[in-house]
Amino acid sequence: MQTILVAGAGKSSTYLIHYLLSHAARYNWRVVVADGSAEAIAEKTKGSPYAVAAAIDITSGAERRRLVKEADMVVSLMPPHLHVLLAKDCLDEGKHLITSSYASPEMKEMDEAARRADLMFMCEMGLDPGIDHMTASHIVHSIGRVASSITSFRSYCGGLIAPESDDNPWHYKFSWNPKNIVTAGVDGAKYLENGRHVEVRYEELFANNKKIQVDGLGELAYYANRDSLRYLDIYDVPEIETFLRATLRHPDFCKGWNALVQLGLTNEQDNIGDSKTVAEWLSRKAGYENNGSLKEHVANKLGTGAKDKVIRMLEWLGLFEEERIANQPQSSASLLLGLLSAKWEMKPTDKDMVVMQHEVEYLHRNRKINLTSTMVLKGDNREYSAMAKTVGLPMGVLARMVMNKKITLPKGVLIPNMPAVYKPVMTELHHHGINFAEKVV
């Protein structure tokens, strides 16, 4: 019997674990699910005879290394800094590794060692990053085969709430790790625009967001996502003039989040001091000194009116209320996270929605051609969400192919931009309803 170790049983693990367990009987697999919560493991494995629960502290070296040693391969949905611990164990024990997170500098440092050990450490194998790389690479390689030059590549992706479950003024609910939403964009962003390198500071990232049209959904706003420039060589687009990776949100969300940033409410480095209530915390952050109403003071600070939509959005979050602060969080970001976790929680029957769109401009025989490739996927409910499906299934599919020796494995610390990986994975994802519609003009 072969063993697959899945590290992490959080929101995004549902489809991954279900997929592996659904194939376990046929392939004689044992699926070990490791997480700090025994309850989360039980919720995801649902009593399957092929599942083994391992409720451990993943930072505990002895427990973690024992599980890695007993596994034939490791699939990780842990936070990025914990991938590194698993990767080091995989190097020591000679095990392949698949993760959903960005390939961190610490992971990249293991590239040569992984190659020497004949191992595949496939990073960025989820949604974004993941499906975006696979579909983008397919487009780039297809255009290259007809001797065309790509001049512009823009890739957008967002985890949103489906219209039928959209019942709040932010048009947003949590479908994955809430902390990642609160800290999104803190390092700013870099991208290429008309041949010019552009850098955007965090404080400016959510202001004056541009918009795109998505068939069937209308207008969505976007903000630049991290460092797009690091993918220029990976995507191999030497003649490109514009290259952007961006995150999609509802336009109102970006306006509201920009207000939170300007007020310093997303700050991870500050200390809320002895603020006793939410309103007192907001007062201190906004520099309010009991002159006039707090709401009008905040509106003035943001350069808007007290009846503006953004103020109503802040009010909906409860920021002006004298609600006592529980558990005394240390930073503004942690206090905000607590407030949002209650306000933006998906109901059991709520449906989320994942939207990805690539916009590519290229020259073919001196003619400018625009290609748009779009995927819109709705979840079934809170547990079987579109986010869990698009993050987990690519990892599960690749894990199955590795276990069954269905592909020639690339070696080293990688992302899924090679045809040997993305072609068979995207073919199977198509059968699971993850499809892209293309339009060429």
Task: Describe the structure using short key phrases.
441 residues; 7-stranded mixed beta sheet; 37% helix; globular
Strand arrangement in the largest pleated sheet = 3-2-1-4-5-6-15
Q: What's the number of extended β-strand segments?
A: 16
Rg result = 23 Å
Contiguous uncertain segments of 5+ residues? none
* Number of helical elements: 17
User: On the 0-100 scale, what is the average pLDDT?
Assistant: 95
* Spatial gap, N to C terminus: 52 Å
Most strands sheet: 7 strands, parallel
Q: What fraction, in percent, of the residue positions are helical? A: 25-40%
Global geometry: globular
Question: Any overview of this molecule?
Answer:
By secondary structure, this protein is of the alpha/beta class. 42% of the residues are buried. Strand 13 (352-364) and strand 14 (367-378) form a beta hairpin. It is 37% helix and 24% strand. The protein is globular.
List the topology elements.
Elements: E1 2-7, H1 14-27, E2 29-35, H2 38-45, E3 51-55, H3 61-70, E4 73-76, H4 80-93, E5 96-99, H5 105-108, H6 111-116, E6 120-122, H7 131-145, E7 149-161, H8 178-182, E8 189-193, E9 196-200, H9 202-205, E10 210-214, E11 218-224, H10 232-235, E12 242-249, H11 251-262, H12 278-286, H13 294-302, H14 309-316, H15 332-343, E13 352-364, E14 367-378, H16 386-403, E15 412-414, H17 419-431, E16 437-440
Parallel strand pairs: 1-2, 1-4, 2-3, 4-5, 5-6, 6-15, 7-12
Antiparallel strand pairs: 7-13, 8-9, 10-11, 11-12, 13-14, 14-16
Helix pairs in contact: 1-16, 3-4, 7-17, 11-14, 16-17
